[in-house]
């Protein structure tokens, strides 16, 4: 059985950077916290917990120690509150997310009504939106955008993992609603690149393994696009979940992983599939 | 025979303003010139000529008198040259065109590469483009836009008479070519409104009369959209061109006029059709 790992499986730039910053902070010791999970990987969060890094939902009761801001960023008021409490802040917000936050802030200050193209329930979007000082709308698709009111100057910013197609549809709706539309294309291509590679791979193999947190939107989407092409697609978090029965009559297996999946989890899965393969052909 | 005149036939805001300014200047007397025809109506231009207003293609040899800038505007260098020559300048540039010129200037100065959505041969576009101090592209449709290079910040401005559809297609192409796209929708709805009204009318009548200069792009387009719905569509400049034979077996006739067609030309045509009607039913 041939085992093919997608070239760009796993950590994107922002997640890699955030994870390194978190482990560095953990190594320094002292009371260390993250606001929400540092990234959408329960296994990474658990490793950090074993090193003493606790996950907090908010800052209540915290007056001392180090607070790590996760890759998705947090609401501006929360960051300000952390500074006011004189906590040591390790800001691991992805620089691309930071840019989206800054654009929303400057657009708002310049008098634009702001449209954030994204999922209103996602913490990244909730963080980005908090930087608006004027009117702000979260829009998930063109259909939602068609219900936007008539505005003056409209500023558009996207959640970094949005599809370009959705951004396009929202921009077209905005064009009909304002005299000036200023679009910052803050989409990061990491998501699209992983999806394109995974699709190519799914076409060539008999079985796809997608590794990543069940709470990771980009991993779930990765598994979805593979499953559309190849029903024998399995989404798992760890090597223990692999099942030898999945590989019966499989000549080629493809492996990919979401942007928040660490290399060691991928390595473990690759190793375990190798073992299963050796058991198949002793 | 019923004769129906479209509600919004004739002069748009900018043309009406420019024509008034030109006649006022003509009434003042003295050497008075326009740079190119004041509007795309040979009959208005002729009337002004009879009052002593001469049409010049450029400023060469002019050192005295009044120069009227036409509704489409002129190149920035030409306006500066007129001021340098201490000519009296009557700037009859349509305020909506002026706005497009100003946006191009400020976008250029702010470091944007500028895309002007319009017809490169049209004097309005040539004037607008001249306000760019950096890179500028004139793009007539989405297909042309697909050949644009990758840019940094892209500013988009439209010729005031462009269709919204074309603007949309160009914006979509630009979205794929820059990180920031700033669109000023400078399309004036006068053109679209006249076309929509004319289409509605063409559906109800047996014959359409479209009045306006043969050199007027918006009048030609008006005649085209009517002819698509009603082959018995006639584009004429003056009442003398009307032909009684056109109205045989006609119960209802529709009349419209381009944005540069003066009221007195429309009145003459309406009067002449009335006469033809009376001759038909003595």
Description:
The structure is a homodimer of 282-residue chains. Chain A is of the alpha/beta class. Chain A folds into 3 domains: 2-10 and 190-280, 4-hydroxy-3-methylbut-2-enyl diphosphate reductase, catalytic domain (Cobalt-precorrin-4 Transmethylase, domain 1, 3-Layer(aba) Sandwich), CATH 3.40.1010.20; 13-92, Rossmann fold (3-Layer(aba) Sandwich); 96-187, Cobalt-precorrin-4 Transmethylase, domain 1. Helices cover 42% and strands 20% of the residues of chain A. Chain A is built from 10 helices and 12 strands. Chain A has helices spanning 13-28, 42-50, 76-84, 95-109, 123-129, 142-145, 164-175, 189-204, 217-229, 263-280; strands at 2-5, 32-35, 53-56, 66-69, 88-91, 113-117, 136-139, 153-158, 180-184, 207-211, 233-236, 252-257. In chain A, strands 1-12-10-11 form a 4-stranded parallel sheet, with helices on both faces. In chain A, strand 4 (66-69), helix 3 (76-84) and strand 5 form a beta-alpha-beta unit. The mean pLDDT of chain A is 95. Chains A and B meet through helix 7 and strand 9 of A and helix 7 and strand 9 of B.
Kindly summarize this structure in a few lines.
The structure is a homodimer of 282-residue chains. With 282 residues, the first copy, chain A, is an alpha/beta fold.
Observed structural traits:
282 residues; alpha/beta; Rossmann fold; homodimer; 10 helices; 3 domains; 12 strands; Cobalt-precorrin-4 Transmethylase, domain 1; four-stranded parallel sheet
């Amino acid at each position: 059985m041939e085992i093919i790992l997608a070239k760009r499986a796993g950590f994107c730039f922002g997640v890699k950077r955030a994870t390194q910053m978190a482990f560095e902070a953990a190594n320094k010791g002292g009371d260390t916290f993250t606001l929400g999970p540092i990234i959408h990987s329960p296994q990474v969060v658990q490793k950090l917990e074993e090193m003493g890094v606790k996950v907090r939902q908010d800052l209540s009761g915290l007056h001392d120690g180090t607070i790590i801001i996760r890759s998705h960023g947090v609401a501006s008021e929360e960051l300000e509150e952390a500074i006011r409490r004189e906590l040591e802040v390790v800001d691991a917000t992805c620089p691309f997310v930071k840019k989206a936050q800054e654009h929303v802030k400057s657009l708002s200050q310049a008098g634009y009504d702001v449209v954030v193209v994204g999922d209103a329930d996602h913490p990244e979007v909730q963080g980005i939106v908090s930087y608006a000082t004027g009117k702000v709308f979260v829009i998930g698709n063109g259909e939602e955008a068609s219900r936007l009111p008539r505005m003056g100057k409209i500023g558009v910013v996207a959640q970094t993992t949005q599809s370009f197609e959705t951004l396009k549809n929202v921009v077209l709706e905005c064009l009909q609603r304002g005299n000036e539309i200023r679009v910052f294309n803050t989409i990061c291509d990491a998501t699209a690149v992983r999806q394109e590679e995974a699709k190519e791979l799914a076409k060539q193999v008999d079985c796809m393994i997608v590794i990543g947190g069940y709470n990771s939107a980009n991993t779930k989407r990765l598994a979805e696009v593979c499953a559309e092409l190849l029903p024998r697609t399995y989404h798992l978090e760890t090597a223990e979940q692999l099942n030898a029965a999945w590989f019966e009559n499989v000549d080629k297996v493809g492996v990919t992983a979401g942007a928040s999946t660490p290399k060691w989890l991928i390595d473990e899965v690759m190793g375990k599939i190798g073992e299963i393969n050796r058991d198949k052909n002793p």
